[in-house]
Structure prediction request, 322 residues.
Amino acid sequence: MRFAIDAMGGDKAPDALIQGTLQAAEHAAGDQFILVGGEEARPAQPLPANVSWRTSSQVMAMDENVQNLLKKRDSSIWIATKMVKDGEADAVISAGSTAAQMAVAVILLGKIDHLLRPAIAITLPSLEGQKIFLDIGVNADVEPPMLLQFAQMGAVYAQAIGVAEQPRVGLLSNGTEEHKGNTLTQEAYALLNRSDLNFIGNREGRDLLNGGYDVMVTDGFSGNIAIKSMESAFHLLTTILKKELTAGFSRKMGALLIKPALREMKKALDYQAYGGAPLLGVKGLSIVCHGSSGAEAIAASFQQARNCYQHRLTDKIAEAIL
Prediction:
């Protein structure tokens, strides 16, 4: 498989993107990794045989107005995405501006026919295992038919990566009753209920990590708040545990005994272990990584891209959106 990597996107760019790519390349000698970035960011040491460098002269900043994208056609995210369009790469990986990544994907790759809006689907840990949650930030303002399409794409993705054969689709709301929620969720409920999806009704925020569903659907505004709240809660939990378990000699000794369990817990809750998230609904693979992704998360994102590619995710979504 061939990957185009936006080496200049992200809070920890270019180091995290370069190191993550090198980690992945070490274990995938048969794949090709093309790093795209400024010549000044190019590593001084020779790159492995399956890693190459494509020079770009421009960068889309994390907080830059996406309207500037058309003026920056030599930016790393534009070039990396164009490589997918031109057949030089099978997937693009970026931790840069999500708005810019979505915009360039729509411009260069195009939306799947009949799709209203693409969406980002993230893999969530839960008491039952992996779950799919979308949208997490691309679409702040949506209409009910968009949520139906998000659910269709999420169900295809859940099947593709082995979350469930017949994914249970839930609609995020402030109560499980059919009449709960705002106008958007009430109208979306009616559409989902009439669809051929395995729709299980409204679900509340507490269910995101408890389970009882396979795919949870919401608008990008609510989804982004939810995911960032969970990240903050995970950080709070681990910080308090570390403080309390090291407060005194006896606690430190006890901490040594449960250290393996704590390590596994951190791994289960750490978003970096899941890598990136696919931008669903465009005609090509575009993997969106968290802006603060380190090398570990970048390395994991290649496996996400590989799963999507091997399971023909783009083609299957196109078949589901009619």
